[in-house]
Amino acid sequence: MHAFEYHRPASSKDAVSLVSKKPEGRYLAGGQSLVQAMKLRLSSPSDLIDLSALKDLTGIRTSGSTVEIGAMARHAEVAGSAEVKKAIPALAALAGTIGDRQVRHMGTLGGSLANDDPAADYPAAALGLGATIHTNKRKIEADKFFKGLYETALEPGELITSVSFPVPKRAAYMKFKNPASRFAMVGVFVADFGGKARVAVTGAGPSVFRQAEMEKALSAKFAPDSVAGIKVKPDGLNSDLHASPEYRAHLITVMARRAVEAALK
Amino acid sequence: MSTSLIGARVQRKEDYRFLTGAGQYTDDVELPHQSYAAFVRSPHAHAVLKKVNIEKAKKAPGVLAVYTGTDLANAKVGGLPCGWLITDVKGQPMKEPPYPPLAQGKVRHVGERVAVVIAETLAQARDAAELVEVDYQVLPAVVDAAKASKGPKLHDIAPDNTCYVWALGDKAAVDAAFAKAAHVTRLDLVNNRLIPNAIEPRSANAVYSRAGDDYTLYVASQNPHVERLLMTAFVLGLPESKVRVVAPDVGGGFGSKIYLYPEDVVVTWASKQLNRAVKWTAERSESFLSDAHGRDHVTTAELALDKDGKFLAMRVQTTANLGAYLSTFASCIPTILYATLLAGQYTTPLIYCEVTSVFTNTAPVDAYRGAGRPEATYVVERLVETAAREMKLDPVEIRRRNFIRQFPYQTPVALQYDTGDYDATLDAVLKLADVAGFPSRKQQSLKSGKLRGIGYACYIEACGIAPSNVAGSLGARAGLFEAGEIRVHPTGTVTVFTGSHSHGQGHETTFAQVVAERLGLPMEAVEIVHGDTSKVLFGMGTYGSRSIAVGGTAIVKALDKIVAKGKKIAAHLMEAAESDIEYDKGVFKVAGTDKKKMFGEVAFAAYVPHNYPLDKLEPGLNENAFYDPANFTFPAGSYVCEVEVDKETGATTIAAFTAVDDFGRIINPMIVEGQVHGGLAQGIGQALTEGCRYEDSGQLVTGSFLDYCIPRAGDVPSFKLDTRETACTHNPLGVKGCGEAGAIGAPAAVMNAITDALGVKDLPMPATAQTVWRSMHKAA
Fold first, then answer.
1. CA-based nearest distance A256→chain B, Å
2. Fewest CB within a 10 Å sphere: which of A13, B346, B671, B673?
3. Are residues A21 and A111 in the same domain?
C-alpha cells in the first residue's frame, strides 16, 4: 500500500468539499474493494475521505411503497433489519449473501453501487427493483445509473447519500457463486410489481443488466415456466476461467427460473 | 493397570498456544536492528534481462541496499542444488541447469526474483522496489508439459527442455502381455497442477553476528537441518557450524516448505553484507507465484486384463512438468515416488512406466502432500474402475480378484510391501459407507434433480522413504534417517529432541505420548523440542508421512538406551545384578523382590553421583539415536465417495465420503483423524475445485484466491472414518504414517464417482460446475 492522507469529516458537506480539493482523493465507505486494491498497489489515492462518521448517510426508513436505505448502511444491517425483511425480504436475503461475515459488517450499500463491480450483488437489487439513487446533487434512476464495467453515472466527487427501493409484490434473488471468489458468477434478481416484472442479471456481463425477454414473459405471467424455456444469447457475456459466455447464458435461465420459484414460495 | 497412552485421544499440547495466538512464527520474530527485504519479481514468463537499473531505488528513503544477480555472482554465491540425481534411460545424468537465487541474464517464470531491496521499513523496501527499472526483452514462453519439447528453449543445457527421460520396468515383457490381453483399458489423464497455499506464507529472517562470525536464520521450513546443509555446503560455502537454522512454529507446509528457496539464501547472505537482521515474508500473491507447485502430469495409461478381469500388465507414459528450475526434490517426485507405486494394492505382474520430465516457463514443481503417490493412485484407480465398467464387472469385485494377499510382496516396480490386509479395509468401508443402500439413495437424488454416483479408490502409499543406501543407489544425495535425543533432567523430567519437524502434525503431543508411555511418566513430564539446529543434534525433517515411523523410531531407540543405562544405575543403587532389573511404568525393580527405585531417583543419582559406579559408568542420563529404516512403510486404505450432480448447473457436491485406512499402529486417533480430514479435503480440492492455470504467455491466471479455489469447510461433507490395523513389521512401534493418505486416495474416488454419475469415461480435474455441465452438454 502506498502512503495516503486520511480524513474523517463529520458531515457530507465537509466530505464533498474535501474531495473537491483533492483530485487524487477517494471516498472510503466500507473499504472492502478499495482497500484490497490499495494493498495490491493497484489503486493509490492521495487521500482517503472516510465516510463512517456521516450520520446523514445512515439509517433505514420505510414508507408504504418504498424502503430508503442510507448509503453507509452495512450489509449486515440490511440483512438483519426487521423493516427490510418485512417490506422486501428478497433485499434483506440478498444482503445476507454478500461476501462473508466480515465483509458484511464493513461493506456498504453505497460503496457497492458506486464501485459497480460486475459481479456485485446490490446492483442486481437496485436495477431489479428499479431503485432511485440519491446523491448530494440529484436523484438517479437505477436504469440510468449503471454504465458499464466499474462505471456509473456518478460525476467526480458526487456522493451517494441513500437509495430508495420500491416495494414489489414479490421478489427473489438467486445466485450461482464463483467457486473461488464466491462473487456472483450469475445472479438474477426478479421482482413482480403486479403485471409488471423486472429481471436484473449480475455477474454475467460487464455490468448489471435487465433481461427484456424474461421481463415480458413474467409481466404476462409471473411463473417459473414463463422463463424456463427462454434461451439467453451468450453474445457480450463475460468469459473467464470459471465460466464461458455459453455457460453463463445457460445459468441465467436456470437462476431466473429458480428465482421465480423462490419468489412464489 | 493404568490405561495406555498409545492409542489414546490425548488433547494436543500445542493447541493452547495456537488457539490463544501465542504461537511464534518466523514473521513474529523481530530482531535488534531489523531490516526488511522486498523482492523485485519478473512480470514476464521468459525474457532476457537487458538492463537492471537500481540507481533510483538505492537513493530512495530508508534503503540500505539493492542487490541483483550480478552482485551474488560476484560474491560467488552458488545456485540452488537439486537433492536427487536421476539417471536417464541412456545412462546419462539428468540435465541440471543453474538455479541462481537472483536471476542472471534471463528470467524463466513470472515471479522469478530479479533484485532485492533492503530497507529500514517494509513499506520503504516495497516503495523502493517499484523504482528498480528492468529492461526486459520478452521471449516466447511455454507452459504446458505436453508442448515443452517443441517450445522455446529455457536452458542451454537442455535444448529440447527435457530434464530426463526415465523408465522403470520390462518394456518388452509388458508389450508382449498387452498383445495377448483379452481386454485393454486406456485413459488419457491429466493430473492437474496445484498450488500448496499453507496458511502461513513463507518467511525468512536472518541475522549475522560479527562477534561470532556466525549466522542465525529463522525460516518457515519443514526441515531446518536440510536447509542448513544445502545452504552452507552448496550455495554460500560456509561451515555448517557457523549457521544456526531455526524453524519455529510453522503454519502448514504440505511439502512446499521442504525446499531451500532463493529468498532464504538472499536474506542470509545479505545479513552479513549489511551486518543487519534482514526479514522477508511472502505476500500471498508472492506465494502463488513462487512457492513450489505440485502435480502437473500428462499421462497415457493402459491396463491389460484377461477375460476374467485379472490384471496382466500396465503401461504408463507420463510427461511431468518440473517448472523453470529444479526445486530441491523435483526430480524424484515423478519417478522414484511415482512409478514405484503403480502396483497399487494389486498383483499386476508386469508394469512399465516411462517418464519425461520437462522444463517450462512456470514456477518450479516439487512435492506436494502425497508427492507422486496421488498421481500414481489416480492412474491405477481410474484405470481399474474404468476397466470394471468396460468389462461389465463390479468395481469392488475386480479389485478383489486382483488384491495382493501374500506378504511380504515384491512388486514389479521395485518396492516390497511388508504387510497389509486390503480385504479388511475394503470390507469395512463397504459396510460403513452402506454401499448396499446406494441404489435407493440414487433414486432419492433423482427425485430432486440430482444425479448420484459412487466411486471407489483403494490406495497404497509408501512412507518414510528408505533405506538411505538404497535411496542413494537410486540417486538420492541425502540420507533418509532420523535422529532423536532424550535428555533426562536430574529431577526426572524429560526433554526430547527430534529431527522431525511439526508444522501442524501435533508431534508435541504424539511423540510425548510415546515417550511418556515407554518411560511410564505423566505427559506433563515430557517436553518435545524440534526445529532448531542448535538444539537438535541432527534431523532430516518432516515430509512423506515419515515423522512417527522414522522420527518416532529414533526416539524409541534413544529411549531404549536410557532404560538400559537406568538399569545399570538402578542395579548399583539396589545392589542387584543388572540382569535382574526390570523396568515397568516408571519403576526399576529387582525381579522377584519388592525392591524398587523410581525413574526420578535413578535420574537424580545419575546427576548427583554420590552413590554411583563412577568407575564403570559415566554420570548423566542423556542418549541419542539415529535410525535408518530397513524399508518404506506401506499404509493403505479403501475410500468410497458418493457425489450428487445438479443436472441443470453441473454443480457437484460430495454427498458422502467414507474412508477406512490402515496406518499400522495408531498413537493418537484424534490427531490421525485430523490428518485424514485435512488430506481428504485437499484431495477433494484437487478433484473438484483446485487447478493452477497459466496463460500460454506464462501469466498465472490463478494468482489469488479470487480464482484459485481451495475447498472451504462447506465443500466437504462430514467424513465417515475408520481404521484397520496391520502393524508395520520393521519398526518397533508398528507405525506406518498417515499425513498424506487422504490426498492420495481422494481424487480417484471423487472422479470415479462423478464419471459414474454422468456415465462418462473420463472428465478432467478439477470437475468444476462448468466442466461437468460441458460434459453433460456434450453427452446430451
1. 12
2. A13
3. no
The per-residue pLDDT for B779 is: 53
Query: Which chain B residue lies closest to A254 (C-alpha atoms)?
Result: B648
Tally Cβ neighbours within 10 Å of residue A182.
19
Residues B558 and B661 both lie in one domain: no
How far CA A101 is from CA of A98, A240, B354, in Å, comes to 8, 27, 50
Residues A181 and A257 grouped into a single domain? yes
Q: Percentage of chain A with pLDDT > 70? A: 100
Average the pLDDT over B459-476 and give the result. 92
Dihedral angle, C-alpha A145, A148, A152, A155, nearest 10 °: -130
- Is the pLDDT at B322 greater than 90? The verdict is yes
The answer to whether B707 contacts chain A (CB < 8 Å) is yes
Q: Minimal Cα distance from B714: which residue of A? A: A179
Residues in B 126-155 with any Cβ partner in A closer than 8 A: 126-127, 130
CB contact (8 A) between residue B648 and residue A41: no
Residue in A with minimal Cα distance to B695: A241
Chain B positions touching A179 (Cβ under 8 A) are 689, 709, 768-769
Query: Are B512 and B573 contained in the same domain?
Result: yes
Q: What pLDDT, in 10s, does the model give residues A220-241?
A: 999 999 999 999 999 999 999 9
The answer to whether residue B381 scores a pLDDT higher than 80 is: yes
**Edge-to-edge strands, sheet with B350-358:** B162-168, B350-358, B311-321, B297-305, B183-191
Min Cα–Cα distance to chain A from B648, Å = 7
Asked whether the beta carbons of B652 and B688 are under 8 A apart, the reply is yes
**Nearest residue of B to residue A180 by CA position?**
B709
Which of A139, A166, A193 finishes a domain?
Answer: A166
Which segment of A191-195, B269-273, B480-484, B542-546 scores lowest on mean pLDDT? B542-546
In chain A, which residues have their Cβ closer than 8 Å to the Cβ of B702?
A: 180, 241
Q: Of the candidates B505, B513, B534, which has an alpha carbon nearest to the alpha carbon of residue B679? A: B505
For residues B507 and B654, membership in a common domain is answered with no
Question: Omega of the bond prior to A89 within 30 degrees of 0, cis?
Answer: no
ipTM of the complex: 0.95
The phi and psi torsions of A241 (rounded to 5 degrees) equal: -55, -35
Q: Is the confidence at residue B51, as pLDDT, over 60? A: yes
Question: Is there a single domain that holds both residue B267 and residue B337?
Answer: no
Q: Examine residue B347 and state whether it is found in any structural domain, yes or no.
A: yes
Q: Which domain holds residue A131?
A: 56-166
Domains of chain B: total:
3
- B285 shares its domain with B402: no
> A59-82: per-residue pLDDT in tens?
999 998 999 999 999 999 999 999
